[in-house]
Amino acid sequence: MDFAERQALRTRIRALVEPTVELLDLELVAVQISGGGENLVLRLAVDKVGGVTVADCTALSRAL
After folding, report:
1. How far is 58 from 15, CA to CA, in rounded Å?
2. Is 41 helix (H, G, I), strand (E, B) or coil?
3. Is the pLDDT of residue 18 over 90?
4. Are strands 41-47 and 27-34 parallel, antiparallel or unpaired?
5. What is the pLDDT, as a whole number, of residue 1?
6. Could you give the CA distance from residue 55 to residue 64 in angstroms, rounded to a whole number?
7. Closest by CA position to 11, among listed 30, 38, 39, 34
8. Please, how many CA atoms are within 13 Å of residue 35, restricted to the half-sphere of its CB?
9. Contact residues for 23 (Cβ-Cβ < 8 A; gap 6+)
10. For residue 8, is pLDDT > 90?
11. Is the Cα dihedral 45, 63, 42, 1 positive or negative?
């Protein structure tokens, strides 16, 4: 997957997950894709006033 394809995928993922992130009063800071082939890794970085808790991450993971 080249840079342009990864960028397009990040944009699509952001559009899909941002409403859920915002529903949980979080802010989507970054969408990162690493790896290659069938071993792609997706990382979402989120933030909120006062800091993100493990419970926030759990709720987001389950909602997504």
Report:
1. 20
2. strand
3. yes
4. antiparallel
5. 82
6. 14
7. 30
8. 8
9. 63
10. yes
11. negative
pLDDT at 37 over 90: no
The residue whose two tokens read 């997950």 is 17
pTM of the model: 0.86
Alpha-carbon gap, residue 6 to 24, rounded angstroms: 26
Question: Mean pLDDT across the stretch 29-51?
Answer: 95
HSE, side-chain direction, 13 A CA sphere, residue 61:
8
DSSP symbol at 37: T
Q: Roughly how many angstroms between the first and final C-alpha of the chain, as a whole number?
A: 24
DSSP reduced 3-state for 61: helix
